[in-house]
Amino acid sequence: MADGRTAASNTAVASVYNDVKEYYGKTLKKTSDLKSNACVPSAKPVPAYVRKVIAEIHPDVAAKYYGCGLVVPECLECCSVLDLGCGSGRDCYMLSQLVGEKGRVTGIDMTEDQLEVARKYIDYHTQRFGYKKPNVNFVQGYIEALAEAGLEEKSYDIIISNCVVNLSPDKASVLREAYRVLKDGGELYFSDVYSDARIPEDLKANKVLWGECLSGALWWEDLIRLAEEVGFCKPRLVTASIITVSNKELEKLLGDHKFVSATYRLFKLPKGSEKKSCLVMYNGEMTGVEESFEFDAQYTFKVDKETWVDDDVASILSNSRFSGEFTFRHQGLKTSGSGECWAKPKAVSVNPFELLQQLGSASVAPSTGACCGDQKSCCQ
């Protein structure tokens, strides 16, 4: 009986893979072919330094972009980056410029039609960026099985993904494999579509709803649970924006289900890492965020200004590539009473729907923690 269930499960997974390959390899030819606004980039303004690098990407690559957010984490120089579900390679080529010639970017995708576009323009972008040799490569494979694609354990500083995890029939395996190939202190920084409840099986079986990144969306609570079960520290919510679908036929099928596009940061911290709140001061040396570093929806760090951070964020900053970008102070810290006093920032939910409600009722800006480590940059 167990073998029968396994065979049925494998058949279902293979069917999802084939449907997604067909949808993104044959049905969709360009971004405007999408039938909903789920896979449309976030309305959040794109920073000037990111707009500059996107402008360098070949139009044929950009035309087949189906992301739902902006996956440009900070402090990228010299880093090794993996893009899960890279498609035609737009984000890979964008990051290729930001990691620099000493960094490297790998894109993995299961759809050969997409990879054919990505590979076609490797030489074009190498010359465009002024590099002596390519720092980008593309691998065909499944994001649930990175080992089978030849990706080694603890080999990447950062993993990104842009509106792809929802298309996977096995989200837990995606997170497990991402955790495996990340170095200690590494980060999974990804944008995806999330639902306000678990999606029923009849909707999951709809090929268009799945292909449009809707019926395969994780319930946001399941993301939090799965991430921590795999070993990541508690996810940090960066941004969220509402998805309106904007298709009467699809809206009727979906009923009362609501969706958001949200970006989360998940960190793989070394085992036994100390967690102790402290004061931190950002040195302002990261490209593109010299004056202010918006870490997530709760914390924004102003250059040369001390900010109180909680146990989790203190551990993340001191054990990741960000450690060399901050000064840490544990002595003389008070959060109440007389003397030097630092207000604890207002807690921000990891629930993207709740964050949007807060933003709708009042402006919720990341806290700067106003008054009442070893160097680990990728280039080393």
UniProtKB/TrEMBL annotation:
Keyword Signal: no
Occurrences of domain Methyltransferase (ranges): 79-231
Molecular function in Gene Ontology: arsenite methyltransferase activity
Enzyme class (EC, first level): transferase
UniProt KW Transcription regulation keyword: no
GO annotations of cellular component type: cytosol
Top-level taxon in the UniProt lineage: Eukaryota
InterPro entries according to UniProt: Arsenite_MeTrfase-like (IPR026669), Methyltranfer_dom (IPR025714), SAM-dependent_MTases_sf (IPR029063)
Keyword line: Methyltransferase, Transferase
EC number: 2.1.1.137
UniProt-listed GO biological process terms: arsonoacetate metabolic process; methylation; toxin metabolic process
Short name of one Pfam family: Methyltransf_31
Catalyzed chemical reaction(s): arsenic triglutathione + [thioredoxin]-dithiol + S-adenosyl-L-methionine + 2 H2O = methylarsonous acid + [thioredoxin]-disulfide + 3 glutathione + S-adenosyl-L-homocysteine + H(+); arsenic triglutathione + 3 [thioredoxin]-dithiol + 3 S-adenosyl-L-methionine = trimethylarsine + 3 [thioredoxin]-disulfide + 3 glutathione + 3 S-adenosyl-L-homocysteine + 3 H(+); arsenic triglutathione + 2 [thioredoxin]-dithiol + 2 S-adenosyl-L-methionine + H2O = dimethylarsinous acid + 2 [thioredoxin]-disulfide + 3 glutathione + 2 S-adenosyl-L-homocysteine + 2 H(+)
Family of the protein in this entry: Belongs to the methyltransferase superfamily. Arsenite methyltransferase family.
Protein name in the entry: Arsenite methyltransferase
Organism: Carassius auratus
Gene name per UniProt: as3mt
